[in-house]
Amino acid sequence: MQPADAIKALAREVGFDDCRIAAAAEAEHADSFREWIAEGCHGEMAWMERTPERRCDPREVLQGCRAVVTLAMNYYPGSNPADGYRIARYAWNDDYHDIIEKMLRRMDEGMQALGGTQRFYVDTGPVLERDHASAAGLGWNGKSTVQIHRHLGTWFFLAELLTTLELPADQPFGDHCGKCTRCINACPTKAITAPHRVDARRCISYLTIEHKGPIPEEFREAIGDRLYGCDECLEVCPWNKFAQLSRESRFHAREAVFKMKTRDFLALTDEEFRALFSKSPIKRIKRPRFLRNACVVLGNTGTAEDLPALEKATEDPDPLVVEHAQWAIAKIKGRLPGRVA
Description:
Blueprint: H1 3-14, E1 18-23, H2 30-38, H3 52-56, E2 67-74, E3 86-87, H4 96-113, E4 118-121, H5 129-136, E5 140-141, E6 147-148, E7 156-163, H6 182-186, E8 192-194, E9 197-198, H7 204-210, H8 217-223, E10 226-228, H9 232-235, H10 255-258, H11 262-265, H12 270-276, H13 286-301, H14 307-313, H15 319-335
Helix pairs in contact: 1-4, 13-15, 14-15
């Protein structure tokens, strides 16, 4: 068996849904990435500014890098089980970083046995991973900048191993979006400012996860019932007609979370928050930001029944929670019959 075939067989054995190989080269959209950073479209994600040359070329990350082994893992967990709110599907249960990193270590061990030296990443390394995935034929980059796979749709994680092994590159699959603009049209905040270009400062995923301060009022109503992240541009993609439920149960909905109503989250202490979201990617944003998000959702969807929980939240020790709770109260009261905010 040739090394490339052995690597792909190992990927299937480990649990990945697809594995393809790209030659180590500068990322196709390196110049666009540099312009995007220069224009400040990355918002507060300052880590993206660091060592841009390393991020644009895997050969700057791993000395002697000859190939990039790109991997896809299906995480589609099905329809939303929550009552009154939405959480991005990737965050319904355990953190994918922890799950996939263990799988990558097994891949690394197998590739070491073939004589290679590797560095591997899942969403966290200095690598423009979607460009390398597209070059390898592991789907293509959609107009929303989300990677699309012909069998998995939009519901998959990307991971990669940079390697010194000399491996034959697979052929690209090409762009199959055609004239479709569903993702652009669906974005609630018009964050997709042009095909293949997203202004993170307008993106609901950025605002509810990466953004640390108050959510700008101009975007609060557009957030709607989105408690953490936003799947809108993923959900509307027509390629999802091929999506199937993930085999990995740790990506399926965590019952302890989804049995709660939005207002219930406001009562969580810091300890309770950390316990509820143990091993979850949601734990990373910490309690104040999550409660901030819950207040925004209640401001958009809440009723008089939610006011007592919000009134109590105005006494929270964190001013971020207080301000958003006050905003939510005003919004709900403004909707009540015969009442004004």
